[in-house]
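Section 3.1: Structural characterization of target chains.
Under the original work plan, the team committed to producing a structural model for every single-chain target entering the pipeline before any wet-lab resources were allocated. The record below documents one such target. The sequence was received from the expression subgroup and is listed exactly as submitted; it comprises 95 residues.
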Amino acid sequence: MPLSNEQVCHLARLARLSMPDDNTNVTRRQLDSIFILIAQMQEVDTTGIEPMSHPQELAARLREDAVTETDRRTAFQAVAPHVEAGLYLVPKVIE
């Protein structure tokens, strides 16, 4: 699905990118090549292939799950402007 120059300009505007007119054709060709690559990748038959979390078999180092910090909640909430039942109260920002 090739893009038109108008679509590229619209995408740039949505992404808040300033794009000079002479750069539109280059960007359109680059995006088209990306879409062609995606289409080629979608044509590959992946039935029977199990998804992997990482392309290499790496073992994650696990550390002991232990508390390393002291509980300072009361000290932090003592300086907060509004606290109720252990929760910070903030002003409503969305109506």
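The longest helix spans residues 21-42.
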